[in-house]
Every structure is written in C-alpha cells, then in structure tokens.
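To: structure desk
From: M.T.
Subject: fold request, one chain
Message: Could you run this one when you get a chance? Sequence is below, nothing fancy, just the single chain.
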Amino acid sequence: MITRILGMLFTVLFCMACTSIHKQGEVVDASAFGLKPDTGKDASGFIRKALEYCVENGAAKLIIKPGRYDFYPEQTFETYLFISNNHDGLKSVAFFLKGMANFEISAPGAQFVFHGYTLPFVLENCRNVKLAGFSIDFARTFQSEGDILSVESGKLEVSFPIEYPFKVENERLKFYDETGRTEYPFGNLLEFDPVRKETAYMARDYYVGNNLKAEQTGPRSVRLYIPEIQGKTGNKMVFAPNHRLVPNIVAHQCEDIEVDSITMYNSGGMGFIAQMSKNLTVRKMIVTPPSGKVVSCTADATHFSNCTGKIRIEDCLFENQMDDATNIHGIYMRIEKVLTPYKLLVRLVHHEQLGMDIFSPEDSVEVVDAKTMVTYAHARIDSVKRLNKDFTEIIFSDRLPEKIKINDVVGTMVTPDVVLKNTVCRRNRARGVLLGSRTSILVEGCTFHIGGAAIMTGGDSQYWFEQGGVSNMTIRNNIFDNCMFGNWGRAVISMDAGEEPEPAGAARFNRNVTVENNEFRLVDPRIVSAVSVDGFIFRNNKIIRSDDYPFSPQQAEPFIMERSVRVDIEKE
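Reply: Done. Structure tokens follow.
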C-alpha cells in the first residue's frame, strides 16, 4: 500500500515537472492576451499582460503577428531610468524586460507606432535576449520639419505641413501634437537639401534654444528672427528637439543581446543604446526617415557606453539621423578629492552621464591626466559606494601614487572587441562612427557618405567625459564617398588626443592603426588628421577627386600627422 502511494506521488511529481519543463520552453502568441493588429486601440495593456505571463512561466519566445499596433503611455510600465548620453527621468515603457533570460520577441511584419513620450523598449539585467523583425515609428515625430519660404537680414520664414501643429504664443513658436496638449519643444535648427535628402551643403547648426521671437505670417507659416541665419528657399529647415528623452531600445547591464532586422523611423533620442553590457549584436538594422521626411532618429542611430565583450554591427543602414551612426566609448569619472592614500571621491560630470554605475569591486582602472590624456597610474578596486547620481567613493586595494591630482579622471581598463561590417552610413548630421577601444576594432566593407568625418576617434575629459583612444584598429575595403561636405570634422578619418602634448617618452594615445584597400572619393583634400599615434599604416588605397560637390577651398595637406611616430603612408 505504501509502495503504491509512493508510486502515485512520484507520478504526480513527475507530471508536474514535465509541465514545468514544457512551460520553460513555451512559445507565446500575444494574440492570446487580446492583442490584435490594425485596430488603432492602445496595445500597451495587452503587451504588458503577455510579458508578465512570459516572466512568470519562463517562456522562450513571444510572437506578435504582422500589422500595425499603437502604443499610448496610459497602460505602460513606469520606471526611473538613467540612460547614458540621453536624459534621465521617469519613463513610460511599452516593452519592459527585466531579469529575463533565453527569450525572444519575434514580430516580423509588425509595425509598432508609439504616441507621445512612450519609450518603446527597455532591457534591464537580461541575458541571451533577441528582438527581431518589427519596425518602430512615432505618430508625431520629435522633430518638426518646415519648408523655407525666405531668408533675409536675420529673418527666416518657414511653412509647416499640417502634421506639425504649432502656435505662436507671446511671440514664441511652440509645437504640439494633434491634441494640442503635448508640447514638442525644439532647441536647434539645421538645414536639409530635400533633393539630395541630406544635410545641406556646408549647413551649420543653429543652437537657438526655444526662445526665438516669432510671428505668424499665414495659416501654416511663421517668421523667426535669428541673427546671421542662412538658408536656401525650397530647402527644409529641421527644428530638432531640445532633449533626448525617448531612445527606442535601451539595454542596461545585459549580456548576449541581439537586435535583428529592426527598422527605426524616428526616436526622441538614440535608436539603440547599450550601457554596462556585454556581447551585443546589431544585425540588419535600418534607420531611415518616415516617408516625406528628412530626419530619422534625433540622435545617434546606435550607441555603446562602457560595454565589454564583443560589439558586432553588421549589414545595417544608418541614414538621416541627427547624430552619429554609432559611438562606442567608456565614461571617465573626475577626481574631486583624495580622501586617503587608498580612497577617492569621484564624480560623473556631464548631465547625460549621471547615475552610471561604471565601476565594481575587483575592476582595474586607469588614472588619466585630464590635459594630456596620458595614463599615469593603474589601480584595482576593493569596494565602491555610490553616494548619489553624481558622486561615488572608491576604495582601492593598493596605495595610490602621490602624484594623483584633483580634476584628473579615472576610467575602466576593459574595452570591447568592435566589428563594424557591410554597413552603410549616410546623409546624417555630424560624423559617421566614433570609435574607442583598447582591445581591437575592425571596420570593413562599409560605405560612408557623411557631412563630416567618416571615422573619428578620441577621448574627452573636458565636456562629455567620454573615455576613448584606440589600439589595433583596422580600416579596410571601405568606400568613403564624398565625405566632409559639411562642418563636422577635420578629415575623412580623424584621430584626436589630449588638449596638451604628452610628455616626452610617454605612450601615444592611439596605437597600431592600419588603413588599407579603401576607396576615397574626395570633395575635401583632408584624408587623415591624426594626433598622438604610435604605429600608423596607410597603403593600397584608391584616391579619386570627386566633382559631385564644389571642391573644398581648404589649402590643407591630405595627411596631417601630429605628435605621431612609426608612420608609414603610401601615396599614389
């Protein structure tokens, strides 16, 4: 009898275990929670229920059927986020994945349209997560685009399509959504060529704030008073947002994240931003403007801050965003006080870097001179105590050198392997890619058509406090197509260092750079501008003078090498 009871109990427990195992690998269809495409109704609540079920049951995949889905902020997740190079704050998040592992959201053909300031995706402390197949757009873009009617004597007259509702209130221009309740403030102006669909030739940024004198001149037109304003009648003037509040996808302290075949039409910040994360793959991502517009994302297409492992960006198109295609860097914290020979008080300085927990016990850090960017000490961390979003106390295992100075900076010693392949970067404001890593960087098979520098490296301990410098960087088999037709660079390839020369005998900031088998179609004579490089090779490159734009009047050498050693430049 006892044997029979034990046998029955074993059977029940075995069946329960089987059920649990089955659920752990479950594929969930979001339509089971009421989600239907093309209804125009708020999808946020349905997605929230589906994700909660996936978390509770350890599901492997969430499937979303093709069609349009609209997301409003009322039923979203709500969380406070510190996001590197974006603005922190309380966010309304449509897809909030926290602590999830071995999970995929698969939505080929799904069109996600977000309303207001709804942040699409946040991944926090996730492992082995994949997002695939959908597009991201916003019902009202964060920028406003107008047609230039006239420019004269510090006055700009612009006509806005009906999709950009506006009012002139107390002689100030204000943009709204279709309800007239949600404001879309602007902070800078930039002219675009609607024929070429890119920044206008040699256009400059106008950082005007949101306080220009304005007067309405017609039902859809406004005259703005801007000293020294320039522009061409018939071109577009883009009124870009004065914030980075709504990036599209945020990965925070994650590992093994893949973003595959996703299209982004707009954002209120970065397209994809990863911070303090490891092993990240961006594959077949398209960043492009909505139909009839000239701007896609309102900041970088992709951005990686204090990430490790391997960063792979492959087979992507990044075009018409208002900042770089990618920026890969660490963060420097500034030394505010030497508390003891073993203890520092350090600070995050830039307002878009606050709240970043970039150090952990057992980490090795470099101590860097703020003026020369020379690393003069290394130390291992024993403990870290964050006091608030600005200040952190660090205790080190070993005694610090006496030469450590206030206002110098500390940064991590661990940097990622970077691979950028078969990707097109074009028509955007500013640069192509900003790259920083002391491990290795490969840029291969890419095409750059950029108003400024196509590839830029450097470090900064004065404003953004972005940790940079490169080692073992190879740039090969790329096409540099008519870069430098704007105002955002010193050469097609630009490598920077500290504000002041490094001391005699000190290591150079950039090391071991090879540029080979590329094609340069030039509208500006400056091919490479490099500061503080040890080991630079330029070979087997094809150089063509282009007539697609007026050739720059710059009387400059094609190669400007400052404070550099072991330089080998093969010229045609």
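Reply (cont.): Residues 2-24 form the longest helix (23 residues). Let me know if you need anything else for the meeting.
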